[in-house]
């Protein structure tokens, strides 16, 4: 893979941060939720955000 330029690196950093924030929010919502269906939605959303963050971080290697 080719080297990332400064703009791409900055965009990647922004996307990783956004997915990390989404993960943290979904985890917080999950902790405060009682409805099993809604809880399941937040759990899947948190997992998806974490997975995407990890995929984005792989571009840094």
UniProtKB/TrEMBL annotation:
InterPro entries: Ferritin-like. It comes from the Bacteria. This is Coat F domain protein.
